[in-house]
Give the backbone structure.
Amino acid sequence: MTAMLSVGFELFLSAILVGGGVFALIGSYGLLRLPRPMQRLHAPTKATTVGVGAALVVSAFDLLPQGQISWQELLIVLFLLLTAPISALFLAKTLILRGEADPNLPDPGTGTPWATLAQERSDP
Amino acid sequence: MLKRLFPHPYLTMTLVVLWFLLVNHWKIGSLVMATLLATAIPLISSAWWPDRAMVKRPLSLATYTVLVLWDVIVANFQVARIVLFMPRDKIRSNWITIPLDLHSPEAISLLAGTITMTPGTLTADMSACGRALLVHALHAPDPAAVRDDIKTRYESRLKRIFE
């Protein structure tokens, strides 16, 4: 009975792992398929969130039948969530500054320009 | 006295939890080490933390986290469908300006991070005065709807948590 349960659990974990892998693959495929630089920037955020997330969930609960849960993976998720938006923001700002993003930016509606294009940096 | 020893109580608590996650087991020795680090690091680095992050409702922050994680999973499926099946010339990418009602820098960075992590939208820039965010949407035929969605779903919740 316990053997059956453990096999079922392994199958469940494998399914999550494969699902996460598929999402990472779709993310990389998006990088190839989408035509414009700003659109391509959307693809990597997918791979990190669900692809890596699934791998980490499986890694954390892998030894659950033996009564162990690994909590370190939570830390990886935390730092991923902290760093991924920052790297994406810097890539976007670089594209805007180099004029490789779509040129017709909307008006900020605040009377000041977008920070990347402002001549002098005014501290808020 | 207590305030002098622990200038940033949230940071201290976070550091204790982080240390336990890092060592991955529950032993009394780790608690001693965690307490030492969690006391020393805020004291040494307090010069770079001019304000305390004010979390008015910590419980709402927890429900907000769960909501965002759920949205991330749902939105991933939507974006995967766009990437795989939508013809290239049908993808309507759009810039969206989001005027901010939030004032605290912590809340604004949390909102910007949430927008980037929920697939389909990406925070690209901020206005020089810090009162509006520039968001890029992968496929948004109706930019105003996306703006209203972000404002009601995320910003209003963050406003309740932080302000």
Residues 2-97 of chain A form one domain.
